[in-house]
Amino acid sequence: MKIRGSGFNFIFLMLVIIFGLTLPGCQKITNLPQVSLKSSDNSLTNPQPLENKDVLKVGISSVLSPRETLENYHLLTEYFQKKIGRPVQLVQRQSYQEINDLVKNKEIDVAFICSGAYVVGKKDNLEMLAVPEVNGKSTYQSYIIVNASSSIQQFTDLRGQVFGFTDPISFSGTIAPTYMVTQLKTTPKNFFGRVVYTYSHDNSIKAVLDNVVSAAGVDSLVYQYTVVKDPTLVSKLRIIGQSPEVGNPPVVVNRDIDPHLKTALQEALLQMDSDPLGQQALKALIYDRFVLPTPKAYEPIEIMVNAIPSLVERATEG
């Protein structure tokens, strides 16, 4: 009996000691921060880089000829990969409508398009994220250019001449000059002797220089970019007409894109000018920075498009 009692007392004593040692530990646990085991959700207002094995597909319209366009956007792909956390693939097509269709069908995530393509494609669920600012401005124009040696002095002198359009839904290359023709109470088919499509603004400039066309409508930003690269062109080209100022070519997404990705893309664009790699990418594109879009700036294009409802079909006739 004594052995059993001693054993019981010994066990009871050990339990008291263990309980006394562990009790302070339990009291300390209650003071530790709580940790949630739920998956964290990236903030829409301040997203972290999205670590995703999926490729980020970036569509680019051939404002410049395809090879030069790819060279200019090379640093942008590196910047997006750094900020979004996904490998980047550039997707290029010859026509603006093809890029619009890819955005509409969610086959690409984001696209750099023409202002005219945006206005025409708004019905297809396109949404602007940002626009580039160049020389302190977020607007540009269509320039009607001729060879400096030409006798053509004004737009009305182009009757019966060969004219260079860029793309059927390009604002500066097609919509603006077509609208100018409609103001003369006629159509491009009846006004011009012939219309040719170049599918890039630098090709249109070259066509004017080589007298392949008598005149062409070109993006003022591309014109300025081109003469910066080759200042001798200032004396070889002449501007005989220009459109009103409109919003710069925007960066767009499908309106139904994942909201976290949309916010991450928009913030990456708006923060480019404060990032060393972003600054290099902007320099390659000859942009100052990206800013939030101003929808009102695209209203003049809407007016032009509404004035020529059969714009695409009519332009294609050329």
Features:
globular, 13 strands, D-Maltodextrin-Binding Protein, domain 2, 6-stranded mixed beta sheet, 318 residues, 2 domains, alpha/beta, 42% helix, 5-stranded mixed beta sheet, single chain, disordered N terminus
Question: What does this 3D model show about the protein?
Answer:
The protein has about 325 residues and is an alpha/beta fold. Helices cover about 40% and strands about 20% of the residues. The chain has 2 domains: about 55-135 and about 250-300, D-Maltodextrin-Binding Protein, domain 2; about 140-245, D-Maltodextrin-Binding Protein, domain 2 (3-Layer(aba) Sandwich), CATH 3.40.190.10. It contains 13 helices and 13 strands. Strands 2-1-3-12-4-13 form a 6-stranded mixed beta sheet, with helices on both faces. Strands 8-7-9-6-10 form a 5-stranded mixed beta sheet. The longest helix is centred in the N-terminal third of the chain and has 28 residues, at about 1-30. The protein starts with a helix and ends with a helix. Residues about 1-50 and about 315-318 have low confidence and may be disordered.
